[in-house]
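Convert to structure. Protein one:
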Amino acid sequence: MKAYVFPGQGAQFSGMGKDLYDKSELAKELFHSANEILGFEISKVMFEGTDDELKQTKVTQPAIFLHSTILATCLGDQFTPDMVAGHSLGEFSALVANKTLSFENGLSLVYKRALAMQRACEMQQSTMAAILGLDDARVEEICAAIDGIVVAANYNCPGQLVISGALPAVEEACIRLTEVGAKRAMILQVGGAFHSPLMEPAREELAAAIEATNFNQPICSVYQNVTAAAVTSPDEIKRNLVAQLTAPVRWTQTMNQMIVDGASEVIEVGPGKVLQGLFKKVDRSFPCSSAEI
């Protein structure tokens, strides 16, 4: 069974999507359509922008979404998913790929999500940190003992967990986690505390937009971040998508569940190879590849 997976924020690079634009008339049309929907030339930023320009949340999220969804669309009959999943932002790409969302609605939601998250980030000094080399349960235990908001945010793979929260609490957690044996506890260069309670204002904004958007019956299951389980009900998909902003990304659990449910190969659709690397951390022999046209 083929599992198609879609990357999240952090996979962007200058020049992303230019090869698709040059090779495919369909891709060209979709990029032009995206420029109109967003009201600015995101294709120009993707193809020619600096790393700093691409790092802005309002650019990063739609840019990665566009690279992934346009590539999936251009695969045409080669795109034959038995299951899909996306890491954080990538879940929206997965939902366009499995026909739950239209390209236009998916892009509109991603842009609204990006702007809402940006606003939430500006309300309080907050950050995220990668913790390497400790059991998930130990990281959770240390975070729970700290005064202030700091929670497990991304369960990326065994031995790699990202925490998220208010800046002082995350800094304190990094010190304590290093003291109890973490190989690394590294503050990340991100806009704020994604997948933490500090994203509550963004969650409320996004909930209204999602509720007003049409969700179709998907052509295959999506393994959602919040539950790490296969979902096909449009209403359930909506609920999980809203919850995702303040809940952790259970990617380790998602990978394990996809394998248990019969995934025999994983194909990453979008910029970079981060998700393939995470699958290899679960099972070094697992067949992984990148989608190409």
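Protein two, convert as well:
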Amino acid sequence: MVRLHRKEHRDNPEYYTPIYKMALSQFDAAADKLALDPNLRKRFTDPKRAIMVNIPIRMDDTTVEVFHGYRVHHDTTLGPSKGGIRFHPDVSLGEVSALAMWMTWKCALMGLPFGGAKGGVRCDPHALSRNELQRLTRRYTAEIIPFIGPDVDVPAPDVGTNEQVMAWMMDTYSQLKGYSIPEIVTGKPISIGGSLGRVEATGRGVVYCILEAMRHLGMTPDGKTVVIQGFGNVGSHTAHTLSEKGCKIIAVSDVHSGLYNPNGLDITALQKHVQKHLYLKGFSEASEINNHDLLELPCDVLVPAALSEQITEENAERISCTILAEAANGPTTPTADQIVKDRGIFLIPDILANAGGVTVSYFEWVQGLQHFFWKEEEINERLRDIVTLAFGKVLQISLSEKVDMRMAAMMLSIRKIADAKLARGLFP
């Protein structure tokens, strides 16, 4: 077994964070299974490039605050890098590097001509006014200008950002270049070149994977119980689409509280409540439940759609589901992974389950470059085809190699990029 480049990471505590160690652990396990050449392993374990920036902005009270931002390109072998921009208090170089690595595997798994990237600013976007958030976004964009571009690196929304943030990024980049360049970002408003179906895309991809898993396991969606941790963009659209397919959503949660109704939640009414009140708290047709208990509710499908490291060795033995669909990035720790596998729970790994977002981001990028836009039905059909094809390939490897779905997905992704690296050679 080969282990490389560990001392360098340990010497930089910000870089070698728990989430980055998790990403490396997953890579190492798959690389061992593939017997990957040591020279290739060295090229995967570290990002291709990374930038750290200070972002001074004038606050509404006229004081100046300095925020810290990052942009990381993990790999660009298959094309420009692609990945979200995260505004969150816990953003760090290590977290962004791990997310960029996962984006690399995700894009390769979906057959997209992208490498993996990720960016973010360490801040609490909810504590900023709209004007402060706009100034922060524009200054951050200006600071990372050398790192981004339609043929270099294409940002998208992530935790704490949305289509408005993408619009400000697109406008800032365009103003500095001197002409409109809508294809610089994806996930932007329809009015400036966004794609139909992009907002719902990640949730739809999660649902397509769950339906394929049910088909494999001989299940039908009618009446199947679902628990969803997280009711943001991904969680809410996953809940809505699954309920349309006949599933019964019995519990959901957000950053402030959780809701539980064993008879099923009215997702349409719940979405209207959130639109009006911002959060789940106060919805009258359910009882409150804490996040700890929510994750351990008996259900057919558990969907962690919040942040990373939610299923750990402390609670993995008490998870009670048939299918675990990772809508969030890195919600299951490596130790918990083994427990989930040993218990026979069917895992749909994050790089497969939540890849619908980057897939439709690819569609948006293509439409922007061509200045030719598709119908929403066409976008959803293409998304379903790509996701179900990838699911089938991963399942085939899982069965033939007798490995779990995460290992199968990682093996498929790493082999695809390794073959491309070997074909391209090493410069100079």
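The chain is about 45% helix and 15% strand. The CA atoms of residues 88 and 123 lie 5 Å apart.
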